[in-house]
Amino acid sequence: MAVITTVQAINEALGLMMAEDQRVYCLGEDIGKMGGDFGVTRGLFDEFGGERVRDTPLSEAAIVGAAVGSAMVGMRPVAEIMFADFIGTCYDQIVNNAAKVHYMFDGQFKAPIVLRTACGGGFGGGPHHSQQVEGWFMNVPGLVIVAPASPYDAKGLMITSIEDDNPILFLEHKALYRQKGEVPEGKYTVPLRQAKVVRPGKDVTVVTCMKSVHDALAAAQELEADGVSVEVIDLRTLRPWDHQTVLESVARTGRAVVVNEAPKTGGLGADISAVISEEAFSYLKAPVARICGFDTPIPFSLPLEKLILPDKDRVKQGILKVLGK
Amino acid sequence: MPEISSDQYLALFRDMWRVRKFEQALEREFKRGKVPGMLHIGLGQEATLSAIAHTLRKEDGIFPDHRCHGLLFLKGTPGKQIMAELFGRATGICSGKGGSLHSADASVNNFGDNGVQGSYMVTALGVALGWKMQGKNSLAAVVVGDGTAGRGEWHESMNLASVWKAPVLFVCVNNGYAISTSVGASHATEDLVDFAKAYKIPAIQVDGNDILAAYQATQEAAAHIRAGKGPYFVEYKTWRWQGMFSGEFRPAEEVKYFKEEHEPITMAKADLHKKGIASLEQLDAIEKEVEAEIEGWVAYAQESPMPDPAKATANVYVGWEVESWQS
Ligand SMILES: Cc1ncc(C[n+]2csc(CCOP(=O)(O)OP(=O)(O)O)c2C)c(N)n1
Ligand SMILES: [Mg+2]
User: Fold this and answer.
1) Domain spans of chain A?
2) Is A196-322 CATH 3.10.310.10?
3) Distance set, CA B321 to CA A142, A211, A269, B315 (Å)
4) DSSP string, B86-98
5) Per-position pLDDT tens, chain A of length 325
6) A2-183 has which CATH code?
């Protein structure tokens, strides 16, 4: 099996789907000849031309709106918002159109768009190029949020997302773009709304996504030496997230740590923690712990940024806390 | 532009009456508390709606705004289903889930309105782009209010429609005001065609209370788009009868001018009569016929059942039910 980066994995998925299905096309800023800021669409312009790999100006509302409108008449657009932080400029289009056309017109239209965007901090991007935005969208029925943590899942989830009939916000963590992993050639799918136990364990369940999956795995590895067995769950779909896998795990381990890079208040972590408390309270041997970003904007200076974002050491602390150690 | 036939002129006239009677009936029922929510009506703008409706073909798309109830049925949806939707009934075109601001009918390419005024101006761009990429010869018409023309979406849409030569027909209903703010006081120009010209989109400004002028301008615009030449912008100068919250805030002479001297149905009626196309009796008979038709729709809506409670959680996602923990 080929070992490729997440960028290459998503690129393969796009190329495959565009070759297979004429309805699939890409649009966004500088995605054409240049291949996008991170190279995810590199080569597609040469292969498929400017009609299907469409450069736009900085018109985020029009990028999403054009995607939604064309999807309503049968196209399968994959739109790129260069950085997730910019998504406020097209928030209304996502929340009030993409996510609602199917419902408000009672099933007459659907909006099968994939909206790709680069998110996440840890590299000095500062307040407007670093954020995790899933929390901004947790309260939006009709929207699906997908967030891979490995090249394998990135390719499979992108293919599934393009084929799915719902509007999908596809979060690509910048820290994972250059990460490599084994990826099969050709087409395969990874199911939506299904979390994955990426490391089985007995004592504590860590529920997380994207870059934090790797922090959790590293923490689990270190704690193994101390005789602590940690189960790590990668959610993969953040909305609607897979309650069943999480609750089954917590019922076994009796302890849960939720790790999320976004600010702690009102985010994905809050929802997961609430559901565990509601549905698995009797199994819990300790209160659920949340290891999240601080409730601050993201500062530019690297040591400051490191302070506010969760990392392996804070995940370890969280695990030890629920173990009463 | 050739003269239109007598039959065509009479059809335009009849549809102006259908819009008027529909809106009057709707307003009456709203005041009686039978129509829930908010209501904006298109009284005074009947000529613009009739002109648009008679230009669009079934395969063309329409994005109607909040004063375009008339377009909803003129596009081809049975009027009783539109009325029932506005009453929030099970028999409504969206099963009562959309209402006045969200009545779409996919079968006639009506893509519905947005309660967030004007957001759909980029959706229309997308529909036009999709059809163009599919090699279809349909156009997407989008209604733009003068106040709503301040939305960034309008400018983004015009710019990209121009760049992509997308078949978008921008039909701007300039009735002089947003809720209360006059167009000249809130835009760099009170002639919104100026913006279109800056985006290199062919544009025309026309008296929107003159049905023939409005119709012919719209026809020319559509012909341009159908010839594959890209978007077109039509600005109708018109006037709405009531202020948004019913109170009148506009100068008395302005109200008098538009309601009495420059009123679209009265003008069309006089012209039809003068040209010998129909007698006054025949023209009055049209009004009566239309009234009976519309009252039939009101009765249908009123007699229709409320939606099945299961509809509340239906069609949130395509292919998945909302799970119990989500509802
Ligand atoms: C984005 C947004 N802003 C404000 C409103 C509230 N609102 C509804 S109609 C309206 C005025 C619209 O003016 P115009 O576009 O000229 O249309 P008209 O009502 O005059 O036909 C406003 C401010 C809204 N619904 N959506
Ligand atoms: Mg206005």
Assistant:
1) 2-183, 196-322
2) no
3) 11, 30, 24, 7
4) HTT-TTSTTTTSS
5) 899 999 999 999 999 999 999 999 999 999 999 999 999 999 999 999 999 999 999 999 999 999 999 999 999 999 999 999 999 999 999 999 999 999 999 999 999 999 999 999 999 999 999 999 999 999 999 999 999 999 999 999 999 999 999 999 999 999 999 999 999 999 999 999 999 999 999 999 999 999 999 999 999 999 999 999 999 999 999 999 999 999 999 999 999 999 999 999 999 999 999 999 999 999 999 999 999 999 999 999 999 999 999 999 999 999 999 999 8
6) 3.40.50.970
Tell me whether the CATH fold assigned to A2-183 matches the one assigned to A196-322.
yes
Question: Distance between CA atoms of B60 and B82, rounded to whole angstroms?
Answer: 19
CATH of the domain at B141: 3.40.50.970
Q: Whose CA is nearest to atom 19 of ligand 1?
A: B178
Considering only CB atoms, which chain B residues are within 8 Å of A243? 325
Contacts of A109 in chain B (CB under 8 A): 104, 106, 111
Residue in this structure with the two tokens 């030449």, named with its chain if needed: B229
Token duo for residue B305: 């059942």
Catalytic residue among A102, A128, A129, A173: A129
Name residues contacting ligand 1 (CB within 6 A): B 40, 66-67, 115-117, 145-148, 173, 175, 177-179, 240
Complex ipTM: 0.96
Output the CA–CA distances (angstroms, integers) from residue B259 to B15, B27, B208, in the order listed.
19, 18, 14
Q: Model-level pTM?
A: 0.97
Which among B120, B127, B315 is the nearest to A107, CB-wise? B315
- For ligand 1, atom 4, the nearest C-alpha belongs to B117
CA distance A42 to A223: 40
